[in-house]
């Protein structure tokens, strides 16, 4: 509907047909006119007291929001002010929605990077990178891949999933290795000119680790690095067995191929399993929480990019909330920086950092299903808050399962094991927050919905801060 106004009173229209709505404080009225009148809107004579839209206006009302940058990440709009550019620069430096893929955005973690390079270059072993979620494993793998490619390694990255199939995954990996790097192919031969890849040398259909190693042992003229990221998501025990067998075969043949496996785990055995025959062929690289110095270095990247300064009190708050997680340092630092820029200030203070924490907690809570939010707000959850927080910390393994003994250790003996098991069962049956799995040994528990554990730990850290 297009409307004309006979008074200065403002109304909202719901698109009904022409109607007169009386205005309480005047004798005039507001008339709604059909969207397509017989006489064009812009040709109608403007009577005294009426407000008409400018016929030259390209868009009625306030200008709608626009993108600042193009899809090529170029800031093309002439109207983009310095504040907008600083916001985009802060996003590029501290954005937490994606892993770091370039060295320019990678801070801290110099020691793990050095150890990874040493293991590949000097020890010639396969490497397993493990640690908690959000600790920087994928970012390390991506930045290492860029560094290795500069040294002319042939690096292939593959992300694992729950439906990962050994034959299909490695067929796609070998499809990215040019056949010219195989010992059976001469530089000027027809095979070399054809531009084929290693996958054509694999048997049709399913094959095993031995057949794959037969092909990969022929690599010459380069070294191949295969990164299997998110390996913890693989549920097929045959896949894991075949990968372990592949590591042994490649090592026994001194093949110029090495595997780098990353995944959420507390130790090496959670990812690889107990396989003594390959232990001498692999090295574990645990990713530990960032130190205060590393977290400070990460925030300095945001300072340089957006021309802001994180005050010491803000750094301390972000560090306490993040708990050494690079993901949380980036997330909280980004939000705190945006709050500061929107306030037209250049220094991030403690209040900005706390607002960022509160914003993140609200967003996490809002992302949970309504049922989960309701259960977290129940009196039982408030009464057993410390137990739930301890359970969240105990469930930091790859699959999220924990035992009564794990929670007992987190609580430092504040409750007996019998009391902990009794209270955990309450959140399985009465309050639907936990799942329970029976099996050999003690029962296992885990939170039924992803994200609850992170929300609990962040809320607990915030509560300690303001106490």
Shape: globular
Q: Termini distance?
A: 55 Å
Structural class: alpha/beta
Strand composition percent: 5-15%
Main sheet makeup: 5 strands, parallel
Share of residues in helices: 40-55%
**Structural domains: how many:** 4
Just give the CATH class of the largest domain. Answer: Alpha Beta
CA radius of gyration is: 30 Å
| Count of alpha and pi helical runs | 18
> Which CATH architecture of the largest domain?
3-Layer(aba) Sandwich
Order of helices and strands: EEEHHEHEHHHEHEHEHEHHEHHHHHHEEH
| Average pLDDT | 82
**Unreliable segments (pLDDT under 50, ≥5 consecutive)?**
1-52
In spatial order, strands of the major sheet run 5-6-7-4-8
Q: Give the oligomer, counting copies of the same chain as homo and different chains as hetero.
A: single chain
- Briefly note the CATH topology name of the largest domain: Rossmann fold
Number of strands: 12
Commentary on this structure:
This protein has 467 residues and is an alpha/beta fold. It folds into four domains: 55 residues, no CATH class; 185 residues, P-loop containing nucleotide triphosphate hydrolases (Rossmann fold, 3-Layer(aba) Sandwich); 76 residues, Orthogonal Bundle (Helicase, Ruva Protein, domain 3); 97 residues, Arc Repressor Mutant, subunit A (Orthogonal Bundle), CATH 1.10.10.10. It has 18 helices and twelve strands. The strands form four sheets. The protein has a five-stranded parallel beta sheet. The longest helix has 18 residues. The N terminus is likely disordered.
